[in-house]
Amino acid sequence: MARLGRLGAIVLDVRRHYSNAVVARLAIEGSRTIRDWADEVGVADAGFARCGYLLTVPERLVDACRGNIAMLQGLGLDTRFVTTEEIGEIEPELSTDDLGDPAIRLLVAYIYPMTGTPGVALPGGWDGIPGARGCTPQSCAYRDALPEFTRYGATLVGISAQPPAEQREFAERERMPYPLLSDPAMDLAAALDLPTFESARGRLFRRLTLVAERGRVVKAFYPVFPPDRDAAAVLAWLGTARARDEV
Questions:
Q1: Alpha carbons 31 and 189: distance in angstroms, whole number
Q2: Residue 246: predicted pLDDT
Q3: Sign of the CA dihedral 122, 127, 129, 135?
Q4: Which of 155, 148, 157 is nearest to 176 (CA)?
Q5: Which parts of the chain are beta strand (E)?
Q6: pLDDT tens readout for residues 118-153
């Protein structure tokens, strides 16, 4: 899949989970066009860089994944199935501690518009957008409640459309002990049909929180108000859900 990013850079993916050989062939042919850009178009080289990525799958999808890999290999794509042990042999510096079956995890993902940056003005009209304010208090409340989420075996992540540099600056400044993920292309919004809004900064996520268990979203908190009470509300729900399961 080829797409034009916000900075004008073309990103092209050949997804490992294609089950349709026709669509996979289209993606592969597209990659060849970008790779041979100078010859195909007759202008400067596109700066194509070949790279790969690692996709983890839960145990229940292993057989389907192997089938897709076999199909893609038959089309000439360099892809293969590897275990966590083999990953360590391929790249010893890569930690595989967190690459276990994601289906066994309890994930709490709070999704927010954007946090502020010292010395940088907020987008015009920000105060007039319902639910836009409160991202920093929300994140700090999750930070302070991390031990309680850990007792439930939950993994915490924060997600916004802000670029990685802004997420990193905020995480360092506020000493966030869990990942803040960046999704400037709004891929998550497209995949899950999440609510968004337009601002002077561009398209941003509306505030909501998802709880996923065994690879499936089991609870959505929306709308979230007030933001600084979101962590407490999620913890209360987790406590009720656990008590119900123990009955």
A1: 25
A2: 55
A3: positive
A4: 157
A5: 2-4, 10-12, 106-111, 154-160, 180-182, 196-199, 202-205, 208-213, 216-221
A6: 888 888 999 899 999 999 999 999 999 999 999 999
